[in-house]
Amino acid sequence: MAKVLCVLYPDPQTGYPPRYVRDAIPEIAVYDNGQKAPHPSGALGFKPGELVGCVSGELGLRPYLVHHGHELIVTSDKDGPDSAFERYLPEAEVVISQPFWPAYLSAERIAKAKNLKLALTAGVGSDHVDLKAAAQAGITVAEVTGSNSISVAEHVVMVILTLVRNYVPSHAFSAAGGWNIAECVERSYDIEGMHFGTIGAGRIGLAVLRRLKPFGLALHYTQRHRLAPEIERELALTWHPDAASLVRAVDIVNLQLPLYPSTEHFFNDAMFAKLKRGAYLINTARGQLVERDAVVRALQSGQIAGYAGDVWFPQPAPPDHPWRTMPFNGMTPHISGTTLSAQARYAAGTLEILQSFFGGAPIREEYLIVDGGNLAGTGRASYQLT
Ligand code: NAD
To answer: EC (predicted)?
Structure first.
C-alpha cells in the first residue's frame, strides 16, 4: 500500500460541485503531432467536463487508488513548514501537484521525502520540482505532456488580440455605462501585418504559430532545436539563432520555453532594451523567466505597450504583487492550462501514469522529465539541470 499525496487548488468559494454551463466536452483522441491522448485502462473516476482540479474533485483518482489498496491524501495546504504538505511528505511514495497551485519540491523538501519515488505533475511544466535534487535522489519526475498545449495556445492568441486591440479597458468603459470611443481606440491596432516571434516552438509554441498564420502576421521563432524544413516552409517562418535577434525583429514576443536555472530571469532590463518601442510581451510559460520589476519598468516607460499571461512567482501571487496593478497588463491567475477541457485530459493522463507506475510498466517516454538519475524523455529534449 502506498501513500499518494496530492496537492490541488481550493474548491470554488461558491461550493462544489459548480453548476456546469455545458453538458459535454469534445473528445480529443489524438493530438496535432500524432501523440495519443491519455488512455488509462478501465473506467475514469470522473465524467469529462467535471471540475476535478480542485480539492473535492481529487482528479477523479480515489476510486482507482482505493480499489488497489492505496491511501490518497488531498490538500491545498502546501506552503511553509507547518503545511499539510510538509507534514505528510516524509511518508509519501507519490506526490501529485499541478503547476497552477504548485507544491514546490525544493532540495530541502526532497531531502525530507525519504519514501518519495514519483513526483507527478498533473499538467505540463515540472519546474516546481528541483530536478537536479530529484535526479540525485533517484526520484522519477513525470508530467502529462501535451495534455493542455492547445488550451494554452488558445489563451495566447486570446491575450494577443486582447492587448493589441485594447479590449480590457474598452470593455470596462462599456460596463461602466460609457461610450468613450476615442479613449478606447487611442491604443488600439490590428495585428494583421505585424511581426510575431515565439521563444520556444515546442508543442505550445508551434500550435500558437499555426493558429496565428491565418491572421496574416509574419512569423518568427527561436529555440534549441530548429523545426523541420517543411514546417518552416508551411508557415513561412523566420528562424533566429537566439532570443536577442528575435526580439529586435518583432512586434509581439511570446515566451514558450521551460524554466530551468539558466533561463531564470533571462528576460531582464537588457533584453527589454532590445525590443522595438511599443512591443507586446506574452508569457504563459513561467513567471520567473522574466525579472518581475523589469516588466513594470518597461510598461511604465512605454518601452512595451502591454504584458499578458497567467504565470507568476510565487503562486498563488501575493495580493500586492506589482503585476496585478501595473499599467496595460492582461494578467489572469494561472488558468490557461486548466480549463475543464484540459482537466479531463490531464486527470486521465495522471491515472495512466499511476497505472504504469504501480503496475511496474514503463511510463510513456514523452511523459518523462527525470528518470534513472538524469533528464529523460521530454525532459532531455526541453530542460537542462543547470
Ligand atoms: P515543449 O517541451 O514541447 O517545448 C519547449 C521548447 O522550448 C522545446 O522545443 C525546447 O527546445 C525549447 N527550449 C528549451 N530551452 C530553450 C532556450 N533556452 N531557448 C529557446 N528555446 C528553448 O513544451 P510545451 O508543452 O510547449 O510547454 C512549454 C512551457 O510552457 C512549459 O515548460 C511550461 O513551463 C509552460 N506551460 C504553461 C502552461 C500554463 O497553463 N500556463 C501549461 C503548459 C505548459
So the answer is: 1.17.1.9
Please list, in sequence order, all residues whose beta carbon lies within 8 angstroms of the beta carbon of residue 328, skipping any fewer than 6 positions away.
163, 187, 299, 304, 305, 306, 307
Is residue 301 annotated as involved in ligand binding?
Answer: no
Cell 492505496, residue located: 70
Q: How many angstroms separate the alpha carbon of residue 382 from the centre of ligand 1?
A: 7
Shared-domain flag, residues 133 and 162 = no
Give per-residue pLDDT as tens, 270-299.
999 999 999 999 999 999 999 999 999 999
User: What pLDDT score was predicted for residue 38?
Assistant: 97
Residues 128 and 258 in one domain: no
User: Pocket around ligand 1: residues whose beta carbon is below 6 Å from it?
Assistant: 124-125, 148-149, 152, 199-200, 202-205, 222-225, 256-259, 263, 284-286, 310-311, 334, 336-337, 378, 382
Predicted pLDDT of residue 27:
94
Question: Domain limits at 178?
Answer: 149-324
Looking at the domain assignment, is residue 318 inside a domain? yes
Domain tally for the chain? 2
- Shortest-distance atom of ligand 1 to CA 378: 2
Give the integer Cα–Cα distance in Å for 116 and 174. 53
How far away, in angstroms, is 145 Cα from ligand 1 center? 10
Q: Whose CA is nearest to atom 30 of ligand 1?
A: 285
Tell whether 184 and 311 lie within a shared domain. Answer: yes
